[in-house]
Amino acid sequence: MRWADERYVRIYTRDTPDLAAMGWEARALLWEVFRKMDRAGILQMGKSGHRGLAALVSMPFEVTERALLILLEDGVLEAQGTCLVCKNFMEAQECSKSDAGRQRDKRERDRVAALSQNVTSTSRDVPQESRIVTDSHELSRDVTPYRTVPYRADPVPKKRSPRAAHAEPSQAFSEFWMAYPKKTGKGQAMKAWPGDEFLPNIMAALSWQVATWDPKYTKNPATWLNARCWEDEKSQPSLFQRPSDDPTRGSIRATVGAVLKTGRIEIP
Fold this sequence. Notes:
This protein is mainly alpha-helical. It has helices at residues 17-22, 24-36, 50-57, 61-74, 89-94, 99-122, 171-179, 186-192, 199-209, 221-226, 249-262, and strands at 42-44, 78-80, 83-85.
């Protein structure tokens, strides 16, 4: 389809109160009537009248009848026998642009020209039949129903760099690994390693923590490092003895038993 060979109709896009009050049926009929009018702003309905109009615009007769009454009352259209006439049609289609409109069109043409140069420089290897050529002089800003999108060649896929070799464990980590009782998840432990400067603290913590661990419930090395368990403090002995550790507990129990048996209290 050649857009330059087609006929276009100007339709203003401003939402005025009068236009909004017409309702969607009247607006839909008005745009279709504009498309069917000749350059003089006249639409022949034929002998069928309103039914012929409904057939021309491909709309239901009931909708066309209601919408046409609204347009005639508003004055945007006038009925002259079997014709519909729009008084301002020719003025709207042939009015010249303002200075602001001409400057806007010039900026648009400059933009299209710049994008066309960019497309030409980036699509040298693209086959001729797959290129899109846009003539900015053949397209009108007022009648173009879409924005011009420049052609962009498919991006060249980036080459993936080979996988980096696994880093070797440091001497400090090797010492920790040898001292830790559970040898599970060495790679995760290497990722969780805080740094060689923490080795003295880590080894000092392991020296007393390993003795308190149950082999069945020993943490994985990575879990232990991530939780910074080397910063745990050694538990201090309680200042109070438990009743089971009291050396006099047995004698007191024996004395109470003798009292209950004999009914006498013997004081040594």
